[in-house]
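Long-time lurker. I teach an intro course on protein structure, and each term I like to show students one example going from raw sequence to a predicted 3D structure in token notation. This year I'd like something fresh instead of my usual example. Would anyone be willing to generate the tokens for the chain below so I can use it in lecture? Attribution to the forum is fine with me.
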Amino acid sequence: MSKQNTRENEPLDYCFLLVAYMIYADRQVRSEETRALRQLAREIGVGDRTTDQMEKILERDSAGLTLEEVARGVPEEQRLETMEKVLHMAYADGSFVALEREMVEKVAQIWNWSKDEIEQFISQAERQV
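-- Reply from a regular --
Happy to contribute to a lecture. Here you go:
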């Protein structure tokens, strides 16, 4: 099997990509955030396809996956942990701005979570800051 075919068959890490979307949620991608995300990608060993999609998200490339596609790609059994990671990233700079809340609520809606469920997650994340 060629390297290209192997790469094409490589699964995407949708959980990681959702965290990448949170970095962009406030419409300001800071160099320290991108460095931290790239470092995380290396540490957890995300594949080339996932790294390519991460770069497209950070560069706002229309050829990349949409937030909806990424959210739908997160396996149901990984959604709780993924939301915790997303909220951790949102609060990493010490604040949770309206655009970040909007993204979290949109993902919760895609996952058919109730407003109460997501508010509990947000409250829990606030207490951990």
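Some talking points for your students: Helices lie at 3-9, 14-25, 31-44, 48-58, 67-73, 79-90, 98-110, 115-127. The chain has a mean pLDDT of 88.
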